[in-house]
Amino acid sequence: MTDVKVPTLGESITEATLGQWLKQPGDAVAADEPIASLETDKVAVEVNAPSAGTMGEQLVKEGDTVAVGAVIARIEAGGGAATAAPAKADTPVNPAGPGETPALATDPTAPHAEGGDLTLSPAVRRVVLEHHLDPSKIKGTGKDGRLTKDDVLAAADAQKAGSPAQAAAQAPQAKEQSAPQIAPAQSKAWTPASAGERKEERVRMTRLRQTVARRLKEAQNTAAMLTTFNDVDMTEVMQARARYKELFEKKHGIRLGFMGFFVKAAALAARDVPAVNAMIEGEEIVYRDYLDVSVAVSAPNGLVVPVIRDAQALSFAEIETTIADFGARAKDGTLKMEEMQGGTFTISNGGVFGSLLSTPIINPPQSAVLGMHRIEERPVVRDGQIVARPMMYLALSYDHRLIDGREAVTFLVRMKEAIEDPTRLLIDL
């Protein structure tokens, strides 16, 4: 019998919430195979089996709070590796037969069911449940044949494109499965009720959502927050991106996005206005000669902010590669704790969701946050003529205890100058 303990979760984190069991008593497990998912203040963390064997007693329930080092389950010796191996084979889990959609087979008598022997990450399991799919009938393209979120979404699209009978057969099958082993998503799709019917549903807040709520309220109670705005003409950046995006991708293997320009511009502006990158610690102000940018990324359980270290010293390619990696791993729930700690300045891009204007909230102990918004053509005056230009509103929320209005405005003006004339980023002006 081997004890399964809660692993070290990161600096200053002493407890977590058991989000879901990925294995049930009696299931075969292989060494280092994920058997449970923990929700911490910042990210979901998988607990791996310390040895091969059979899943034994589960000592805590989903939703319980567990401390670092606590025993949460036991692995019984015997029957693990041989039984678990087929689930990690390199061959497809269920290759499609004649007349079937390659991404999704539809045999209702398949031996696996939702929540069966297949090990799914929290993000993948959520999508499976939302679309009423059987994961055993989806071919995984991830490591060791594991399912990814894209695999499930592709299967869902294939099901929608299939016959009505196929879709109808799949939905009841999913509904007959046992209760899902995952906390419901925080945002639920609204469905119209029958005439005279009024429904309510109570969903427990995830640990991440509770922490976000607490920290944001603390920021409002502590900092003297103020927001200043400016707009920026994106013409030059968009032209530069269009001109070099193919060469950039060919050389660096990553697409040239807008975020690289804004991170570089923020580094340039923070050098001229160091208070934006500083923080208050007791009765002292801590100034920094480096810029660690927290980039807000949407994850299944809420917003997370992984950190781009030493952004002032990185190239466009390094910034874009780092951001792309963060985005992919945020969706899969595989970001590490240390990757989301220690940021000195935050950039949040609400424009990807269609936001025109917002007043972002500071992420303590940082002193400022930059909000980017959607790009849209608006009439502006250039050389006495009214012309249409792609414009974006920028918002800088800052702690007025540390940053004066003049400094906040100067910071945004420096960013505006750099974005409207990207050559400044190259010649460090």
Give the key terms:
about 425 residues, OB fold (Dihydrolipoamide Acetyltransferase, E2P), 2 domains, 7-stranded mixed sheet, 4-stranded antiparallel sheet, 10 helices, about 30% helix, about 25% strand, globular
Q: Name the CATH superfamily assignment of the largest domain.
A: Chloramphenicol acetyltransferase-like domain
Strand content: 15-25%
Radius of gyration: 25 Å
Mean pLDDT: 79
Biggest sheet, in brief?
Answer: 7 strands, mixed
Query: Distance between the terminal alpha carbons, to the nearest Å?
Result: 65 Å
Q: Roughly what percent helix?
A: 25-40%
| Helix/strand/pairing category | alpha+beta
CATH architecture of the largest domain: 2-Layer Sandwich
Tally of separate helices: 10
Shape: globular
Q: What is the β-strand count?
A: 19
Q: Can you tell me the number of structural domains? A: 2
- The poorly predicted ranges are 81-117, 163-186
User: How do the helices and strands follow one another from N- to C-terminus?
Assistant: EEEEEEEEHHHHHEHHEEEEEEHEEEEHH
The CATH topology of the largest domain comes to Chloramphenicol Acetyltransferase
CATH class of the largest domain: Alpha Beta
